[in-house]
Amino acid sequence: MTLSGPGASGPKLAGRKYSGIAPEERVRQRRAAILESALEQFGTSGYAFASIKQICRGAGVTERYFYESFPNKEVCLAALYDTLSEAMRAATAAALSQAGPDLDALTAAGLRAFIRYLTDDPRRARVVLIEVVGVSPDMEQRRHRVLRDFVDTVLATWAAKSTRALARSERLTATALVGGVNHLLVDWLMDGRRDDPADLVAVCVDLFAATRAQWDTAAASSPYPSD
């Protein structure tokens, strides 16, 4: 997996080409190699136990090139998390765009893409779900922003297929559902049995469908408009 993402081009440097490669491209390549190595180190040994020296050894660069792109290990973790999160969002969005028009098909496609992106490479799951937790206030803000983005995706999908306005309380429901999926994946990662990801998808699809059915029933029987 070649890692690239927001801000992946690195610092802009002036200079001549080396072996036909411009300086800016060499910086980008080194940064991508460092992020690949960081995925391996953070996703196996863990963030706390991974050193910059180990990351550089895995990337095949000296430490000076680490500091060319990142001032410290936490900024490297943040860049890796942003890259993985963006790829996860893109995979989910692509699945939604190609899914059937009904809500059940959309739900299944989105959840399948989200879950498979993480379970296909447990290193991604470990970084996204575990290693970023509690590192710093900045990382917590990043983590919660990603979760909120997925809540927004759920709400947008619901709204597009609903014949009524969504109640404000449905955001709380969507937040609880996204949190539940997140914790289910944490449990999958920490449990040595590693259930089949298809079973995780099926459970989540059923949970989303049951929740929506309950909301629709309540809305249909209520004499009041959605608040």
TrEMBL record:
InterPro entries: Homeodomain-like_sf, HTH-type_TetR-like_transc_reg, HTH_TetR, Tet_transcr_reg_TetR-rel_C_sf
PROSITE patterns, alphabetized: HTH_TETR_2 (PS50977)
One GO MF term attached to the UniProt entry: transcription cis-regulatory region binding
Gene3D superfamilies: Homeodomain-like (1.10.10.60), Tetracycline Repressor, domain 2 (1.10.357.10)
Top-level division of the source organism's lineage: Bacteria
Residue span, HTH tetR-type domain: 28-88
Keywords, in A-Z order: DNA-binding
Signal peptide residue numbers: none
Organism of origin: Nocardia nova
Protein name per its UniProtKB record: TetR/AcrR family transcriptional regulator
Known DNA-binding region: 51-70
Top-level taxonomy: Bacteria, Bacillati, Actinomycetota, Actinomycetes, Mycobacteriales
